[in-house]
Amino acid sequence: DEVREAMRALPYWAQRSWLASPYDFHWNDDVFPGVHSSGPVWKASDEASDLLPLASFLEEAFPAIRAELDSVLAEEGLFDSLHFESLNAEGQDHKPEEAWRQVELADTREDERWKARTCGHFRNTCALLRSRPELESCDHASAMIVRMSPGAWLKPHYGGPPRLVAHLGLRDGPGAMLYVGNRSLRWQEGRSHVFDDTYVHSARHLGRVGAADRYILHVLFCHPCEASQRGLYDSRVSCQASPMQASPETAEPARVPEARGSAPGRCGEADAQATRFSLGGGGHTLPSCQVACLEQENCNFMTYYAHTGFCHMYQTCGHIRPAPDGGQVHGRAALLAELQGG
User: Where do the domains of the chain lie, and which CATH numbers do they carry?
Assistant: First the structure.
């Protein structure tokens, strides 16, 4: 509470009247202030909603996805084998280690966007997901099948913006719970829920030893307010900042001068040729992002978000979002000067 009150004394946080509890804090608000300010859950599994097309699509696809999961589980040890084949790091976000297993289907941040080995066993699942623009037109989407066994604890953590997460219940595990902000959710077979994982969130399987494992399809997809996604949603998803939350620095994207070659001199020109790409994941330093941009032939501008370590790179600045968190926009010429000491 002391930390929260100290934050609210600062101009940036003073405008966020909704910050009544630590559970209200979320990183997506830094990118899209005031959007869906009602809380961390966009759709619960016991709710019927057509607000998010992906949620109803997953529920309709449940029989096909469940059938492929059952087929994999019928072959002893195959799910664990696929888990270890797709594992690229040993995380410390859950315990005990063996109570959490995930089989990666896709990660659009990587060269192999759709994983050939696992999609060979989940052929229909991958084909269904590839048909969705929430993933295919998103450069930071992912999908996986996740097993949580009794006793498992996924520790509290935050996701990096901008994004949302959809879960489809595949096999029920009595006692399995998801906690997002101040909400508690249960998974249901054949039902989906969508939440903002940039709120603090965690999960536990409170079932007794020997109880059923819980299996879900976990889909991380682009936030509805990202430029590539706006056409998928109707006016009920408003991407306008609330007047009480907007601040001068969120009103207009930062402008940078022409950097080189064909890059336009003003943001917003040549939008048809604009492309955006990311340095995967967060936790990057500004120098590492600068070097990455300079190594990319089509990186003329770069936005760096200091609080998450994310950096987004652009051929033109037509897709640059406002940076209310103090994100810094750099032109290519400026990057060279900074790395060379001015």
Answer: 1-222 (2.60.120.330), 262-340 (3.50.4)
Contacts of 180 (CB under 8 A, 6+ apart): 40, 41, 195, 196, 197, 199, 200, 201
CB atoms within 10 A of CB 48: 9
The CA distance from 168 to 199, in Å, is 19
Average pLDDT over residues 54-81: 96
C-alpha to C-alpha distances, 142 to 127, 273, 277, 296, 325, nearest whole angstrom: 14, 25, 15, 23, 25
Report yes or no: 163 and 142 within 8 Å, Cβ to Cβ.
no
What letter does residue 6 receive in the DSSP assignment?
H
In angstroms, rounded to a whole number, what is the distance separating the alpha carbons of residues 316 and 314? 5
CB of 264 closer than 8 Å to CB of 258: yes
| 295 SS3 class | helix
- Extract the tokens encoding 7: 């934050």
Predicted confidence at residue 310, as pLDDT, reads 66
Task: Let me know: does 329 contact 256? Beta carbons within 8 Å.
Answer: yes
228/221 Cα distance (integer angstroms) = 12
Task: Report the pLDDT averaged over residues 54-58.
Answer: 96
Look at phi and psi of residue 288 and say left if phi exceeds 0, alpha if psi is from -120 to 50, else beta.
alpha
Pure H helices in the chain? 2-8, 11-14, 28-31, 53-73, 78-86, 116-121, 123-130, 133-136, 286-295, 332-339
Residues 6 or more apart from 81 whose CB is under 8 A from it?
A: none
Per-residue pLDDT band for 246 (boundaries 50, 70, 90) equals very low
Angstrom distance (rounded) from CA 316 to CA 265: 9
